[in-house]
Amino acid sequence: MSELRDSIHGQWSGRWAFILAATGSAVGLGNIWKFPYITGDNGGGAFVLVYLLCILLIGLPIMVAEVMLGRRGRRSPINTMYHLAKEEGRLPTWRLLGWMGVVAGFLILSYYAVVAGWALAYLSRAFGGGFEGITPDQAEGMFVGLISDPERLLAWHTIFMVMTMVIVARGVRGGLERAVRFLMPALLVLLLILLGYAMNTGYFAEGMRFMFQPDFHALLYRPDELGIMHFTWAPVMVALGHAFFTLSLGMGAIMIYGSYLPKQSSIVKTTGTIALMDTAVALLAGMAIFPIVFANGLEPGQGPGLIFQTLPLAFGAMPGGAIFATLFFLLLVFAAWSSAISLIEPLVAWLVERKGLTRTAAAVWSGLGAWLLGLVTIFSFNIWSSPEYQFFVRCADTEAGEECSGMTAFAVLDYLTANIMLPLGGLFIAIFAGWRMRRASSVDELGVGDGWLYRSWYLLLRYVAPLAVIIIFLNAIGVLAF
Fold first, then answer.
1. CA angle (383 as vertex; 382, 384 as ends), nearest 5
2. Residue 312: count of CB within 10 angstroms of its CB
3. pTM above 0.85?
């Protein structure tokens, strides 16, 4: 049995509070911004099918394990892993797993808040009818103008960080729980309103076919620079990676939220509900966005610019576009906000436990650190965007002379966290819970007995999930190296 059963930080009022909080952590820019454009980039329906299978077979087993570790430890991820390792007779160096998650969440928040600032800026413009009659060149100029202006980016970044830390400083029930009880229902209502509009565009059926009619040729065969089609597993790797990262795994957020889960709540049922809700939001976002894209004669595979460059064109041309644009970017802000509070919570909890700070002081210092590091991301889009400030720079001779390009500081932070730190975190969670933790301990904490449900989870956690995460990691290393 675990030595500690009560968290000094408090706990959720019940199972649904945890579900809303963890779903808020999982539902973020990845669902509303990233999922639609990577679906568009990778062929639609077949990609969605592979993504759903990855959620079921990989993401869900690791998520159950992370929640289980969090509730059994009842501390910040760092101290949870230290005490659970001690309890299971393992080396105390397992605390490094907690450290990796806390650091990853901190790094992610530093640039996540900058991108969330874009959503705030676009919300402000949408509310004022700034997209009406906009042309493609104007839409591109609007986005380029925003990210090229460090002062504007800093202002929006600061506003978003203050919004986040005010919630975190108020504690588990007074801040986190109260916020997600408002944000998640509001997010769902906004999404359903946009879906209702999409159903009346006349292109809803086309959007559904694109999302749910599998075309594996479009998924697995891609043109090279000469337009020749070649077989590739790259889109499958994208689906595998996104399925893992969309659930907020490996960054300490789910573990710390799990530490606030009441003992009587079923980990398996609540985690299954969270994965279902997170996936539903991503699918609803695609169902709302693609009919609007097709109705306006736009391309679904527009990449990251789908939200900030392509959709403003659609909103600017549609009747009542200012209203729907405002609703959409408000939805984007709410999704980012609910995720951001979970990214910093592990560090705040550790500072309270280890340094004896009040929760308000811990929130202020954590937020200030993330805000300062966010300056690196802000400057990487403008002042530090030239090759002399980039990493892994490669140069090639062209007709116009030598051209060099590399990874900006933002790109390095994104790559380091999403492709290196989070997969490693997920891998070691699976190893600890599946191989280093006593089977009796996990049976006791999950509370579902030793039947087919537990055995299925145990099999997936020990073999399938680690292998898949290793593949993601090696693929990431390969891309970086070559």
1. 95
2. 28
3. yes
